[in-house]
Amino acid sequence: MTSRHAAPARPRAVRHGRTRRSHGVLRGAALAVVAVLCFGTSGAAALYVQLNGNINTIDASDLIQAMPEPTATGPADPDDPNAGRDVNILLMGSDERDGENEAIGGHVDGMRSDTTIVAHISADRTRVELISIPRDSLVDIPSCTMSNGATTSAQRNAMFNSAFAIGADNGGDIASAAACAVNTVQQNTGVRIDHFVVVDFAGFTKMVDAIGGVPICVPNDMNAPKAGLYLTAGQQTLNGTQALAFARARTGQGVGDGSDTNRLGRQQELLAAVVRELLNKNMLTDITQLIRFLDSATESLSIDSGFSSISDMAGLAYSLRGASADNISFMTIPFAAAPSDPNRVVWTSEADAIWANVAGDRPMLSGTSQDTTAGGTGTGTDAGTGTEAGTGTDAGTGTEAGTGTDPGTDTGAGTDAGAGAGTPAAPATPETAQTREAGKEAFSAGDVTAVCG
Question: Higher pLDDT residue, 283 or 348?
Answer without folding.
Answer: 348
